Amino acid sequence: MSECHHKLKLFALNSNMKLAEEIAEVMGIELGKCSVSRFSDGEIQINIEESIRGDDVFVVQSTSVPVNEHLMELLIMIDALKRASAKTINIVMPYYGYARQDRKARSREPI
Predict the structure, then answer these.
(1) What's the CA gap between 18 and 12, in Å, rounded?
(2) Looking at the domain 3-92, which fold is it?
(3) What does the alpha-carbon distance between residue 56 and residue 2 come to, in Å, rounded to a whole number?
């Protein structure tokens, strides 16, 4: 593996696995190892299965349908990466859900 990629890790969550696999292939790296599972009450559990301490980490995840589920996966993954001491955390988000409402159209409406 070249020095350029030594500290770079690429992870994929459930929304864009195929895209992440293609990116990894083009870059000549393997996808990072992580698992996404559920607690008995349905909450998402993420486990990073390799050391990422001091690495520049990229996560491929859209917030496509189901938007809330994919967003929660991403937020929990970011938290796990921070706690695992990633140097940087970068998100590759081909589709950004919740971006449709960029201005207030009516009174008492959120942005």
Answers:
(1) 9
(2) Rossmann fold (3.40.50)
(3) 15
